[in-house]
Amino acid sequence: MLVTGPTLAGDAVATLEAHGLKTFYCGAYASAPDIARRASDLQIEGLIVRQGQVDESVIAASPHLRVIAKHGTGVDNIDLDAAARRGIPVLRALGANARSVAEHTIALALALLKDLGRLDRAVKGGEWPKAGYVGRDLAGARLGLIGFGAIGREVATLARALGMTVSVFDPYAAKLPPDVVRETDLDAMLATADIVSLHCPLTTETRHLINAERLGRMQPGAFLVNTARGDIVDEAALIEALRNGTIAGAGLDSFAAEPPAKDNPLWSFPNIIVTPHTGGAAKSAMRAMAETAARHIVHVLAGSEPDRQSVANPAFLTAASADR
Questions:
Q1: Are 108 and 167 in the same domain?
Q2: Residue 115 sits in the same domain as residue 187
């Protein structure tokens, strides 16, 4: 059993060991060749993916590999088709980190709305901008959510408790709470939101969903928050939007390349707040993601059918149905 990361919550390790599985680790953000080499040396049966890219070379490294579990929900760093071709399910820890990411989203939104970064720097720099400062209200602020899965729902709950109005663009969301407005036109939502927050998966459809044109549709006083996946945003377009004052600022927990370059042009802007993809890293979320991933591994290796709702590679389900 290999984890693509340096640690795994103790209860999850105990679950694996109770079923005869010994846990091994890779370094944080290990390269695909390094992960593949480790998987080959160990001849692994299960893989828990935290960081790094799991490409076809990793998936093919051990002929004994039977299941891949994601320590979280985003699977853009896993070659889903390569896994399906080998009859390997990729399973997500659905909802395990939803509350943690939602809290992080709201924290970034509040920091932006309340100018915390700018005011912090001013006071530490010897200024006292109290006399001329006029802040923004949370109550009545318009929050636009792109995506309304488990995380988006938690964000909406927290935002409504703070008095914000919430609208959602998600063509796949079947039903919304009565106090949340459905938007069928993304551009219309962008034009009216004070904060636009991303909660959709990274797919071919959503890659660079937020591009120069869509940033241009946002209000000059609006903020962008991304606690989803970096490539949903065209970073070059965001840099230009910040440089030109097209939007008021951004709160980013994910980036196109992770870790990002030390000389990333985004760092030059005072109106952004960034964190190192730690939205889901609260203690409870880390434990829940690890335990869910471990249960997925144990379940499949024991010969049971994988949880269909958690399967991230539909081609696996199609192939499995055809084999019956």
A1: yes
A2: yes
For residue 117 the two structure tokens come to 């970064």
Which residues fall within 8 angstroms of residue 317, CB to CB, at 6 or more apart?
Answer: 308, 311
Phi and psi torsions of 188, nearest 5°: -65, -40
The total number of structural domains in the chain stands at: 2
Question: Taking a C-beta distance cutoff of 8 angstroms, is the pair 61, 31 a contact?
Answer: no
pLDDT digits (tens, 9 = 90+) for 204-261: 999 999 999 999 999 999 999 999 999 999 999 999 999 999 999 999 999 999 999 9
Same structural domain for residues 267 and 167?
A: yes
In terms of domains, do 76 and 14 share one?
A: yes
Type of residue at 99? R
In angstroms, the CA 61 to CA 89 distance is: 16
Same domain assignment for residues 89 and 137: no
Catalytic residues: 229, 258, 277
Q: Is the pLDDT score of 296 beyond 60?
A: yes
Same-domain pairing of 119 and 160:
yes
Which of these, 268, 208, 198, 258, lies nearest to 235 by C-alpha position?
A: 208
Position 318 scores a pLDDT of 83
Any residues with CB less than 8 A from the CB of 292 and at least 6 apart, and which? 69, 93, 94, 96
Mind listing the pLDDT tens digit for each residue in 99-117?
999 999 999 999 999 999 9
Domain of 6? Answer: 2-96+282-323
Which segments of the chain are extended strands (E)? 2-4, 24-25, 46-49, 67-70, 90-91, 142-146, 165-169, 180-182, 195-198, 223-226, 249-252, 272-274
pLDDT at 38 over 90: yes
**Closest by CA position to 297, among listed 63, 80, 15, 72:** 15
